[in-house]
Amino acid sequence: MSSNRSTESGKRRRFRRMLVDRSIDVVLLTFSLLMLLPLVFLVSNGFKTPQEMLAWPPTVIPANPTIDNFAAVLTQTPLLRWILNSILFAVMSTIAILATSSIAGYILAKFRYRSLNIIFALVLATAIVPFEVYMIPLYFQAQSLGILNSIWALLLGYLVMSFGIFLIRQNVIHSIPDELLEAARIDGAGELWIFFRIVLPLLRGALGALGVLAFFQAWTAFAWPMIVATNREAYTIEVGLALFQTGFTVDLGRLSAASALVLVPSITLFVILRRNFVQGVASTGLKE
Amino acid sequence: MLRRKRWLFAMLAILPTLAIFAWVRMYPIAETLRLSLHKWDILSKNKPFIGLGNFQELMGDRLFHEALLNTTIIAFGVLIITIPTAMILAAMIHYRTRSRASGFYETAIFLPHVVSLVPAAMAWKWIFDARLGPLNAFLGMFGIEPQAWLFDPTLSVISVIVLCSWQALGYAVLIYLVGFKSLPVSLYEAAKLDGASGPQSFWFLSIPMLKPITLYVSVVTLVSGFNVYAQAFVLASDAQGAPGRQVRVLVLDMLENSFRNYRVGYAASEAVVLLVIVLVLTLIQFSLLRERGRS
Q1: Which residue of A has its CA nearest to B42?
Q2: Inter-chain residue contact A220 with B212, CB threshold 8 Å
Q3: Which of A88, B35, B58, B187 is buried deepest, with most CB atoms within 10 A?
Q4: How many interchain CB pairs under 8 A, A with B?
Q5: Coiled coil located at which positions (chain A) (predicted)?
């Protein structure tokens, strides 16, 4: 009798639990789809005729898809050139940030001199200053170097990343024991050999995360490319798109097509590198 | 001898990075501070020192006031929407961690944070569009008149807030998820034995224990809110099609003063105001954290 009742209540409890699980799933699923909806429509709008853009409710899969918008965008604007500029800028910035962060992070983690403490304090103190605060003087530096409207000007603003130095330093402290380095030194290894052969391979995970972070940071940069690239050929894709829409007529079909051309590869890249990316972004929250 | 060699290696290795750092970070930051005290229009050679003159002028500058007000409203608007939503979403995703769909939820909510600003803003430009946009059509089903979302002074600020929140949410959820994973499981088990329901342990356990994370995410959200530029630039063109004029934000006002009005010193003083706001927010975060540590 009593055992019967307990299984009865256990069943009810399990049923309730399942009900809660399902309703939470429904809420999360709805929310996730709502978050994705603007991007889905953006891509599908690229394939729509002007008439279909007006349809209500908006169609997810265009009734009679057209590639006119894409053709128009590709002939009217140097879109591919802009994409190429962005890729080049992002790749170079990533390389620069990985190089500067790994060396500086390692030195600041494993060598204990008072002068290094001062350097680290400076890195930390400038980390909280937003780029927007100092980009105007930086613009004049680029100008006096005569590199405006080139990849080098874009790169000037994205050569170092305070957070990157910090991230690598934390990683070195946590994952590379002093004993390992000492043992190598006793075996007669040189400092450079130690850095390239012992330290860098151990930092692969952290460098992967930082690299993806740096790439996307440059890829989505807006204010800086906006001021240093004023020549149509020198635009990055973000600037190109933003200025393309300020023409007299705003043609949403073409804008969507152009945007979709940019979004699809970057979303694909993100999904492939998701793990690295999430790890990198999550570590920004662990500053303390 | 060996010690000396090691010291030399450390200094030589850090020198290039330090030089770049000084050149593209510290120097321009110092230059911003210096220029803010000078009057400099790009054309003239001399830059007379005028003390706090620029800041005095800012106090009476109507465009600057408008920009500061809009930016503040946007930053706090995004904060108010993002933090509670992110916390609840993260709690639910954390609760369903073992479900196969949790990866999908995470990715879907995070995706708007990584896609480029401008294409994403284009999507919202269509949604808010007065004539073509689905938002007006949707509201029309309930008998609500179509609104000029991107041209009305109040509605356009709201539109920018919606776009920024959509983008900021993914980051906040991700950081909260890290936070939830670090909470001690035993505490929740004890609460459950004492008869606490899920929402109760969320309210009485999770929220207080996640306070440092909430503080951190709030400051990050506010700081990026104060730096808003691209979103307003794309979304809020005025009737003549001039980008960003409808919702004037600090960064836009600063860039206009510098590159359209050629008043670099004046623009630098606006940058200093931005810096002070960011510093104050960060100081508040640290002092609140320290207070917590002491009690």
Answers
A1: A140
A2: no
A3: B35
A4: 273
A5: none
pLDDT at A248: 46
CB crowding A139-150: b at 16 or more within 10 Å, else e: bebbeeeebbbb
Q: What are the start-end ranges of the E strands in B100-237?
A: none
Q: Which of A128, A141, A159 sits opposite B28 (nearest CB)?
A: A141
Asked if A103 is an interface residue toward chain B (Cβ–Cβ < 8 A), one would say: yes
pLDDT at position A286, please? 54
Range B63-78 burial, b when 16+ CB lie within 10 A, else e? ebeebbebbbbbbebb
Q: Supply B4's token pair.
A: 């000396």
Inter-chain CB proximity A104 and B110 less than 8 Å: no
Judged by CB atoms within 8 Å, which residues 205-234 of A form the interface with B? 216, 219-220, 222-223, 226-227
> What distance in Å separates the CA atoms of residue B14 and residue B194, rounded to the nearest whole number?
56
> Which residue of chain B is at minimal alpha-carbon distance from A161?
B21
Does residue A62 have a cis peptide bond before it, meaning omega lies within 30 degrees of 0?
no
B:12-71 residues touching chain A, CB 8 A cutoff: 13-14, 16-18, 20-21, 23-29, 31-32, 35
- Classify the C-alpha dihedral B5-B7-B9-B12 as positive or negative: negative
**B255 contacts chain A (CB < 8 A):** yes
DSSP per-residue letters across A48-81 = --HHHHT-SSPPSS-SS---HHHHHHHHHS-HHH
Instruction: Give the predicted TM-score (pTM) of the model.
Output: 0.90
Q: What is the mean pLDDT of chain B?
A: 89
Q: Which CATH architecture has domain B60-294?
A: Orthogonal Bundle (1.10)
Residue of B89, B223, B282 with shortest CB distance to A31? B89
**Among candidates B59, B193, B170, which has minimal Cα distance to B114?**
B170
Whats the size of chain B, residue-wise? 295
**CB-side neighbour CA atoms (13 Å) of A112:** 2
Q: Each residue of A20-49: pLDDT tens digit? A: 889 999 999 999 999 999 999 999 988 988
ipTM score of complex: 0.89
Segment A55-114, tens digit of pLDDT: 777 788 888 888 888 988 888 889 999 999 999 999 999 999 999 999 999 999 999 899
Is the pLDDT higher at B182 or at B87? Answer: B87
Domain architecture of chain A: domains with CATH: 2-66 (no CATH), 70-284 (1.10.3720.10)
Condensed to tens digits (0 to 9), the pLDDT of residues B25-78 reads 999 999 999 999 999 887 777 888 988 999 999 999 999 999 999 999 999 999
pLDDT tens-place string over residues A224-275: 999 999 898 999 999 998 888 765 456 788 888 989 988 888 888 888 888 7
A-chain CB neighbours of B108 within 8 Å are 32-33, 35-36
A281 vs B contacts (CB less than 8 Å): 171, 174
Cα four-point dihedral sign B206, B211, B213, B217:
positive
Q: Which chain B residue's Cα is nearest to A159?
A: B20
